[in-house]
TrEMBL record:
Species whose genome carries this gene: Streptomyces gougerotii
Alphabetically ordered keywords of this record: ATP-binding, Glutamine amidotransferase, GMP biosynthesis, Ligase, Nucleotide-binding, Purine biosynthesis
Domain GMPS ATP-PPase: 2-200
The protein's name in its UniProt record: GMP synthase [glutamine-hydrolyzing]
Encoding gene per record: guaA
Reactions catalysed: XMP + L-glutamine + ATP + H2O = GMP + L-glutamate + AMP + diphosphate + 2 H(+)
Keyword hit for Thylakoid: no
Length: 326
């Protein structure tokens, strides 16, 4: 019979056989797919795997720590964390256009990741070892969408590290290629990964950078992180995590409205709650969630987050609205 235990045993044996005595690299995004793929390869080849996590400073509260501490504790994986917050914020300074933000974040991400990769390759070479594999959390639906075919990744390095050739060629290891999302979660659970990672809802690669309408700054990110943490805490406490596909929390940084708080008039920013129900994110409907939960989130955000004096609910389906605001 086909169980997650079998899947793990089979994949571990296959990865061991393929990787042999060579080394592998895996990028961690904080999401479930890359985490489970990394955990499987770690189980197969241990410290022959090095994971790379780029902290772009656009993650939600506690998410980087989840990877750095909980994921490492659960798997024993060798992890290289690159703190690139300043670099991303500098690149994003003065930019409000959504597409431009996405392009900048994507571009910086690739540069930082490739540099880390090149460093790992160089370090290994210094020890007479060969980094030959790149681990990716490709799922079955991704395979179908892109027309199948395993391949190699040509990674162009823009950074000259220790006289490496410009092109580093890796073979891809994709241990989740036969699995659907729910099966990946089961494998992750079986491997003992933290619940917060295994059950994580979708979160965009560009992170909170595309949930601030307006320029992205450190202060605004900190503010949004607080509001988002409150919303997530209350949704979890209300037992709504399984009913809601995801709930983006958006800061309208370029909008101000008048309010009255404490001893006087305020002129603050609105926070938007965007709870959606969906099967596959292609279409979505706004979630009819309990008013009392909305009320608690609103009260807490306006009380606890400075500069926010209003919380609004997005009641738009997709289409016409997208799930994210940018
Ligand atoms: P939209 O906003 O297009 O989002 O309705 C659909 C789903 O995709 C997620 N999303 C992204 N995920 N990188 C990602 O990995 C991205 O750049 C990105 N943009 C949107 C979004 O959260 C939703 O689940």
């Amino acid at each position: 019979t086909w169980t997650m235990g079998n899947v793990i045993e089979e994949q571990v044996a296959e990865i061991r056989e393929r990787v042999g005595t060579k080394r592998a690299i895996c990028g961690l995004s904080g999401g479930v797919d890359s985490a489970v793929a990394a955990a499987l390869v770690q189980k197969a080849v241990g410290t022959q795997l090095t994971c790379v996590y780029v902290d772009h400073g656009l993650m939600r509260k506690g998410e980087t720590e989840q990877v750095e501490k909980d994921f490492v504790a659960a798997t024993g994986v060798q992890l290289k964390v690159v703190d690139a917050e300043e670099r991303f914020l500098t690149a994003l300074a003065g930019v409000s256009d959504p597409e431009q933000k996405r392009k900048i974040i994507g571009r910086e991400f690739i540069r930082v990741f490739e540099q880390a990769q090149a460093e790992i390759v160089a370090e290994a070479a210094g020890e007479g070892e060969d980094v030959a594999f790149l681990v990716q959390g490709t799922l079955y639906p991704d395979v179908v969408e892109s027309g199948g075919g395993a391949g190699t990744a040509n990674i162009k390095s823009h950074h000259n590290v220790g006289g490496l050739p410009d092109d580093i060629e890796f073979e891809l290891v994709e241990p989740l290629r036969a699995l659907f999302k729910d099966e990946v979660r089961m494998v992750g659970q079986e491997l003992g990964l933290p619940e917060e990672i295994v059950q994580r809802q979708p979160f965009p690669g560009p992170g909170l950078g595309i949930r601030i309408v307006g320029e992205v700054t450190k202060d605004r990110l900190d503010l949004l992180r607080e509001a988002d943490a409150i919303a997530r805490e209350e949704l979890t406490a209300a037992g709504l995590d399984r009913d809601i596909w995801q709930c983006p929390v958006v800061l309208l940084a370029d909008v101000r409205s008048v309010g009255v708080q404490g001893d006087g008039r305020t002129y603050g920013h609105p926070i938007v709650l965007r709870p959606v129900s969906s099967e596959d994110a292609m279409t979505a409907d706004w979630t009819r969630m309990p008013y009392d939960v909305l009320a608690r989130i609103s009260t807490r955000i306006t009380n606890e987050v400075d500069e926010v004096n209003r919380v609004v609910l997005d009641v738009t389906s997709k289409p016409p609205g997208t799930i994210e605001w940018e």
